[in-house]
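hiii so um. not sure if this is the right channel but i have a protein structure encoded as tokens and i wanna go backwards to a sequence. like what aa goes where. can anyone help
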């Protein structure tokens, strides 16, 4: 990995900034970052790409989660168990990440993105305001199960995790997009941390690239979090639909090439 060109590093840093901004607004920054790493390092093992993506991502999610929590002040009684169980799920997912073949990445991600995008478009009022569907223990149990399930996915694969957290909190639990985004950032920070707990001792992280992208991701996360607070739920919904649609096209193209190749 030492022979990477300066142009490649610059492009990866730009991807890191864009991923941080997208992640802070609506989640899914990994859908920018991970493909860029796959292109830059075609010979790398999937676990190296996942680990480096996590290192870069945690820089942005740490900044955006603090910014959104301070400004949105979400209900931490839901956010904390969501994050803790997401951490546990991500630990388990990271342990099995090395068993997942690279060829399985895109088809799985594409299927989930199509389902998420279709549901969001079919519900135009989704996420405008918080209207919780459950209360009490059932609410916390569903939040915890959501955190563990998405955390498991994040540890094993990763791309789109922030968007999936936002979607689950909005579509399943009934939060508005802005509050969902704040909770999603805390949970996503927890899943990134859990993955690194597994990946770092394995020596899977490409530290130079990961830290360079992480610095850019941090700046993007800060800018994105402030943008999300200033623009509100309507803006977040639009960005969510645009991001999901763009990645459906991008990943769909890769899947078609994979099938015909």
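sure thing!! here u go:
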């Amino acid at each position: 990995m030492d022979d990477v060109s300066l142009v490649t590093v610059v492009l990866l840093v730009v991807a890191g900034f864009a991923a941080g901004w997208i992640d802070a607004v609506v989640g899914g920054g990994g859908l920018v970052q991970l493909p860029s790493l796959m292109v830059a390092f075609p010979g790398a093992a999937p676990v190296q790409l996942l680990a480096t993506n996590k290192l870069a991502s945690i820089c942005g999610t740490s900044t955006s989660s603090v910014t959104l929590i301070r400004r949105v002040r979400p209900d931490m009684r839901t956010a904390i168990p969501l994050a803790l169980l997401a951490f546990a799920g991500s630990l388990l997912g990271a342990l099995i990440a090395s068993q997942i073949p690279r060829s399985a990445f895109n088809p799985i991600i594409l299927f989930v993105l199509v389902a998420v995008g279709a549901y969001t478009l079919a519900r135009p009022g989704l996420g405008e305001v918080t209207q919780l569907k459950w209360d009490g223990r059932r609410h916390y149990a569903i939040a915890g199960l959501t955190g563990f399930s998405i955390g498991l996915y994040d540890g094993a694969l990763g791309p789109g995790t922030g968007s999936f957290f936002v979607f689950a909190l909005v579509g399943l639990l009934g939060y508005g997009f802005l509050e969902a985004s704040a909770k999603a950032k805390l949970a996503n920070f927890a899943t990134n941390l859990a993955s690194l707990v597994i990946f770092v001792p394995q020596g899977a992280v490409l530290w130079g690239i990961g830290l360079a992208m992480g610095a850019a991701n941090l700046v993007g996360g800060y800018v994105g979090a402030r943008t999300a607070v200033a623009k509100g739920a309507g803006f977040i919904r639009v960005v969510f639909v645009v991001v999901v649609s763009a990645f459906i096209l991008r990943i769909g193209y890769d899947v078609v090439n994979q099938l015909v190749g």
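oh and The two ends are 27 Å apart (CA to CA).
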